[in-house]
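Q: Give me the 3D complex with fe (iii) ion.
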Amino acid sequence: MTDIVKSKQVQNLLDTAAGVNQSGGNPRLKSILRDLLEGLMCTIEKHDISEDEFWVAVKFLQDGVNEFGLIAPGIGIEHFLDLHMDAKDAEAGLEGGTPRTIEGPLYVEGAPLIEGDLSKTNDVNLTDDPDDAEDMVMSGQITGPDGEPVGNAIMHVWHANSKGFYSHFDPTGAQSAFNNRRRIRLGKDGRYSFRSKMPSGYAVPPNGATDQLMKALGRHGNRPAHVHFFIEAPGYRTLTTQINFGDDPHAHDDFAFGTREGLLPIPDRVGGSPEIHFDFTLQKAQSDDDERFSKRARASI
Ligand code: FE
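A: Here is the predicted complex, encoded as structure tokens.
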């Protein structure tokens, strides 16, 4: 193994490449890029990566650019971001509440905003398109840290159909724009209830970049059936989470690391079709920033 990364020559190369010795530019970007490059160089040195292998990797990234949103959870980085935020919360004494978990790449902005205040309606349906899956009902309450009902929340919910495809991203083109996607406006008591067609778990697109990577790692690209949520409410911290069905074969073997303890309800099938009761607990917002969504770029219609 060579040992040149710490040499003066390579250290100078890193400073120059990252613009460290220039007055212009973004200082934070400079120091992050410098560390990333140095880590990459150390990896090249440690594994004696050849020129051939390096350019294979570049080609893989170029060809896979449309799947970065899927590769990120697949290699655990999106989950690591959650762990990092959890650790920062713990340091700041901000524990408690429903665990956050990965958003994934399949949210679409602009879903219909519908009335979900249960004192005004009892019919909140997410599914627009025919689907021969069984009906699913999910209900519960959104409360704050002291058990108080969270008023005026908006629950954003999205899930796949029974073939494991999301509207807007369905390769078969079979679904209407916002099938299985809604924003539900809740009332003062924070109670919610909606019905839809039972989603199925899914695998990454066959032969895509994520699939190739998972196979090369000896892993699979499957997720358990799940339902995604954002929950926003005045005065509370916006929650990004999802529930994964605790009785799915992949419930504890999710390629995207989205399943977490506390987010694995097992549907009740006593009445026939699956019913899930799940209560969400939000944290109080410490600042305006806590009430907003992450600045991640999202699909919109
Ligand atoms: Fe998903």
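A quick observation: The first strand starts at residue 108 and ends at 109.
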